[in-house]
# Entry
Amino acid sequence: MSDYDLDLFVIGAGSGGVRCARMAAAAGARVAIAEERYLGGTCVNVGCVPKKLFVLAAHYHEEFEDAAGFGWDPGQVRFEWSRLRANKDREITRLNGVYRNLLEGRGVRILEGRARLLDPHTVEVAGERLSARHILIATGAWPWVPDFPGREHVVTSNEMFHLEELPRRAVVVGGGYIAVEFAGILNGLGVKTTLAYRGERLLRHFDADLGAALAAELPQKGVSLRLRADVAGILKQPDGSLMLQYANGEEEETDLVLYATGRKAYSHGIGLEECGVALRPDGTVIVDAFYRSSVPSIHAIGDVIGGPELTPLALAQGMALVSTLFGAGPRSVPLTNIPTAVFSQPSVGTVGLSEEEARVACTNLRIYKSGFRAMKNTLSGNPERTLMKLVVDADTDRVLGAHMVGPEAGEIIQGLAVALQAGATKAIFDATLGIHPTAAEEFVTMREAVS
# Structure
């Protein structure tokens, strides 16, 4: 008989925690999971899923406009925010139920409430104490807003999914993927939108050409773009509107300010420090290659350990931990060739090394680029342009990175991720027949290097 109540206690029922819990249970482990908010975590409730639904909704505005060039007259168009929000809520509730069924179907015990570590093997939830041989921290991250005058007047991405009504005007502060996505959503839904970022280029962690291409397209979509714009303070006006004061002395009146300036690990207040778990200054849990913290019985995966904040990565880490603790043996997830998409308008897709990263890793590169208007835009009159780019190691001919800005970038890059993971060379790309006429074929027809 085990000295512990459980083999695994998971704190956090987001994507990574749920996957690890149910697969550990499938391997025969006794598992419980605690969640203080909602099953499915950020991705299902206030992240990937509802955001993509809002992106799809926002696209219709442009689709209606483009339809005229193809002979369609959609007539009078009206958007109803409350209907979109209600339909979104219904879908999220359905997914919450799916997650519950997945866990209960595997025999995982679900505890609703805030979990706190009492020692390296004991967790307390709602007054109940349980011991476990292993404890997993999968608590994710939370939106972060810097301290400045008027901070209390802003909202974060969490609140954007539950607004009672859409504002007439909005300012989105930030230059990362959440900021550019919500700028596109608000603009597409008819809100007069400004995107303000204190830096010089959007998506600074991506290939520089991607941020530049997106910055060129956003104003054509109707988004007012302010770069090198640092917010000094926000004042609430007598009529309820907000006045942004920029560090350069300029002001902008708006009705809503969304701060998308990053997320911080949700690691404090759950007993980690008291148990001796080492954290970085930003709150992320320090783990080894197999997701073990400085306390051997406590493990962590997902956004709470830092690195790319991506649901598929957390899922893969959860599976690797199950293998390490209850399966075939120690396994880790490499952080190379991780594909990702930004659901901005236009969308961004990327996999592998950026040109900047590749120039550090390699001494001899070939860069291939192609910029064009998508076939659809020739009749619609839409000025949007697509950018495609390949980064190639000239010495080995291996494709190190593939990047795109344009319609369905995520769908296209997902396929290329398989090629990069398999070690495809540029010669293999060149020998692959394209599907005509598609935008994707451009990735196998670029012949002349630009540098």
Observations:
- The two ends are 66 Å apart (CA to CA).
- Residues 6-143+264-326 form a domain with the FAD/NAD(P)-binding domain fold (CATH 3.50.50.60).
